[in-house]
Design a protein that fits this description.
Elements: E1 2-5, H1 17-27, E2 31-37, H2 47-64, E3 67-73, H3 79-93, E4 99-102, H4 113-129, E5 137-139, H5 142-145, H6 148-153, E6 161-168, H7 174-185, E7 189-196, H8 208-221, E8 225-230, H9 257-270
Parallel strand pairs: 1-2, 1-8, 2-3, 3-4, 4-5, 5-6, 6-7, 7-8
Amino acid sequence: RGMSLFWSQWIPRYYNEATLRRLRDDWGITVIRAALAVEHGGYLENPEAEAAKIDRVVEAATKLGLYVIIDWHAHHPHPDEASAYFASVAAKYGDRPNIIYETYNEPLPEHGWATVLKPYHAKVVAAIRAHDPDNIIVLGTRSWSQDVDEAAADPVAGANLAYTLHFYAASHKQHYRDKAQAALDRGIALFVTEYGTTQASGDESIDPAEAQIWWDWMEARGISYANWSIADKDEKSAIFRPGTATDGTWRDADITESGRLVRAQLRKMAGIDEPSSRTREER
């Protein structure tokens, strides 16, 4: 249970140990997702700068005892570049048990499973397994990582592989849980590496009731989940209001409506009692 950082090229200011420490201690997170931006001025154009941000999160997460998802945050396939990147990080971090690889954030609907995505994942998995034989690899599915039933019918060969399910509670309801259940019934593992309490745009209405249905559904099935996003962008899915401190000293008043919902769920599941660990005067 945990949180996802925002695209690394746009809001990297929370990619630091202080933020992760506060989220661990006060929110109860056990996993952090580092979203390596691939396109839009990200890794493909600035590989060293973007990779360094991910390395910083990996080191902080390891120090803090957190799982860390290394997320290839793209909407289009780049199999050669992805394979080279994941080979390098697997060689560097593959002996650490807290590492999770996410090979493709959200493939678009036009990227067919059998024709594009399955061969892509097979190539990237092979690159990782050359250095890391057993850490979990999470494979993105078609249609913004929602067609998990399609992937379950034709899975990628290998061990310790899971498949990505994404949802936004105000947009994706029972139909998507039915698709996910069909995938589970075929015997594959799912990992919700990104979800929101809002509509799919990330900036429209919040649906607390549907979010709770999803939380209960995931908990009942032992599915891990990470909320989008650790950001102070002026949109409803961000957990912080614009200008929130980046050094872990934010106040309760800096947390958005969605952030409060997510924090309450995480604290409940972590067994952290209210009130906040920070005093009333500090808020």
